[in-house]
Design a protein that fits this description.
- The protein is of the alpha+beta class and about 240 residues long.
- It has 2 domains: about 1-75, Arc Repressor Mutant, subunit A, CATH 1.10.10; about 110-240, Endonuclease Chain A (Endonuclease, Chain A, 2-Layer Sandwich), CATH 3.30.870.10.
- It has 9 helices and 9 strands.
- It has helices spanning about 1-10, 15-25, 30-40, 40-55, 75-105, 120-130, 150-165, 180-185, 230-240; strands at about 60-65, 65-70, 110-115, 140-145, 170-175, 190-195, 205, 210-215, 220-225.
- The strands form 2 sheets. The protein has a 7-stranded mixed sheet, sandwiched between helices. Strands 1-2 form a two-stranded antiparallel sheet.
- Helix 2 (about 15-25) crosses helix 3 (about 30-40).
- The chain starts with a helix and ends with a helix.
């Protein structure tokens, strides 16, 4: 079974594998013996043999008026593998150009929303959004309240470090009563906080092309990720009108 699967990985079809292994077992032989050994139909065997010959792993000689087929040296299998590898290398080289083209030409103004649940989901939502912030850009957030949750503290500590490396400013708005806790933890991370009398309905971050609404629950935190240029610009204007 392993041998058959390996040959298929090289690009041989099920019928080609059967006929090739039949040639290996019985040596130089006529079509009739191949049909019996490989259990393939008379209508398909010639097509399969032709394909094996083109791949260089089978050949034939003529005795009288009869063709006798045989498997070629197994070293030809290595040649197939090398050719396959060369093709993959060429595809890999071309793929970088394809990715570059897509990133330059894809529709950046698409509207989309997703819901992420759990800590891993929260992390995925933020990582997807953060990569859309340009270097030396800005990260904005409205905070509903400070959390002592160790995962959240670790996550936002690492996030602030990554943003700092890209020279992205972190600007936050929170209620006046949160000032003591924020000054204790977030100030040293480089957050530029300001405080107001307002209470926000939910933790909301403006991250690149995304608006992230974070609903905290220690069992299953939920993030509503909204990609919308209009909504993001609207929230930025609202934020900046308060961040004075």
């Amino acid at each position: 079974m392993k041998i058959k699967n390996t040959l298929k990985e090289l690009g041989l079809t099920e019928g080609e594998v059967k006929v090739y292994l039949a040639l290996v077992r019985i040596g130089s032989t006529s079509v009739g013996a191949i049909i019996d050994e490989a259990q393939v139909s008379n209508s398909k065997v010639y097509v399969i043999l032709e394909k094996l010959i083109k791949k260089g792993i089978a050949s034939y000689i003529v005795k009288g008026k009869t063709k006798y087929f045989q498997a070629s040296s197994p070293n030809h299998l290595i040649e197939i593998l090398n050719k396959k590898q060369d093709n993959l290398n060429n595809i890999r080289d071309s793929l970088s150009e394809v990715i570059e083209y897509i990133e330059k030409n894809e529709n950046k103004s698409k509207e989309e929303s997703k819901i992420y649940k759990g800590y891993k989901g929260m992390k995925s939502a933020w990582l997807e959004a953060v990569k859309t912030i340009p270097n030396s850009g800005k990260y904005y957030f409205f905070s509903k309240g400070y959390s002592e949750d160790e995962y959240l503290k670790s996550f936002f500590r690492n996030l602030s470090s990554d943003l700092k490396e890209r020279k992205i400013k972190i600007l936050g708005l929170a209620n006046n009563k949160e000032k003591k806790d924020y000054e204790k933890f977030y100030k040293k991370l480089g957050y530029k906080m300001k405080y107001t009398k307002f209470n926000w309905p939910a933790d909301t971050s403006i991250v690149g092309d995304f608006l992230l609404i974070f609903v905290w629950d220690k069992d299953v935190p939920v993030v509503y990720s909204i990609q919308s240029k209009i909504l993001v610009e609207s929230y930025k204007m609202f934020f900046e009108s308060l961040y004075v």
